[in-house]
Design a protein that fits this description.
Number of strands: 12
Order of helices and strands: EEHEEEHHEEEEEEEH
Helix content: 10-25%
Strand content: 35-45%
Shape: globular
InterPro entries: STARD10_START (IPR041951), START-like_dom_sf (IPR023393), START_lipid-bd_dom (IPR002913), START_lipid_transfer (IPR051213)
Keywords: Acetylation, Cell projection, Cilium, Cytoplasm, Flagellum, Lipid transport, Lipid-binding, Membrane, Phosphoprotein, Transport
Protein name: START domain-containing protein 10
Radius of gyration: 16 Å
Subcellular location: Cell projection, Cilium, Flagellum; Cytoplasm; Membrane
GO cellular component, one term: cytosol
């Protein structure tokens, strides 16, 4: 397996710390959506750039952090809550807290559907939990003709306990969708796709 020609590495404590900082720090982020407990920010790149970094914060009043972590972590249960998913499965376990998996995603017509092969790693920290991933190349899972192989530069969740039976969910993603995308898709990503994906 490789990551952009480089050997794959397992995220360490500094990677998780950096991810948490990106989720919690608002400097350099621009608010794009704020409604009903869901806030979406984008960062840095021009609005018409296809590789945007997007962050979502959702207040979950009746969901304990541990329960939300279990739901997000369970690939078999994902089809229950992820309406964009076509297929997902585990490819192999690397360590006690890292694996490689496959995920395919429905894109709005007339765009071609996307798929990913990612290395996913997770870390429970007391009452808080993190799950992060990035794309890798796997010799047994090359790009398919019926999908565009997209690239997750960095995607993940930070779940923070927030009192009894409540939590805050951060979803942060920077994905290169590959292929040509019309301008209306790029412009709508932060207003539509991020809130939908992160629910």
């Amino acid at each position: 397996m490789s990551r952009g020609g480089e050997m794959v590495y397992i995220p360490d404590d500094s990677d998780f710390s950096s991810f948490r900082d990106q989720c919690e720090n608002l400097e350099g982020w621009h608010c794009r959506y704020n409604k009903a407990g869901v806030t979406v920010w984008s960062q840095g790149q021009e609005e018409n750039c296809t590789v945007q970094k997007i962050k979502t914060r959702i207040s979950c009043k009746d969901v304990p952090a541990e329960t939300l972590y279990d739901v997000l972590h369970d690939t078999h249960y994902r089809k229950k809550w992820d309406s964009n998913m076509i297929e997902t499965y585990d490819i192999g376990r690397l360590t006690v807290n890292a694996d490689v998996g496959y995920y395919s995603w429905k894109c709005p017509s007339p765009l071609k559907n996307r798929d990913f092969v990612t290395l996913r790693s997770w870390l429970p920290l007391g009452n808080d939990y993190m799950i992060i991933n990035y794309s890798v190349k796997h010799p047994k899972y090359p790009p398919r003709k019926d999908f565009v192989r997209a690239v997750s530069l960095q995607t993940g969740y930070l779940i923070k306990a927030n009192g009894d039976g409540a939590c805050i969910l951060y979803y942060l993603t920077q994905v290169d969708p590959r292929g040509s995308l019309p301008k209306w898709v790029v412009n709508r990503v932060s207003q539509f796709v991020a809130p939908k994906v992160s629910r």
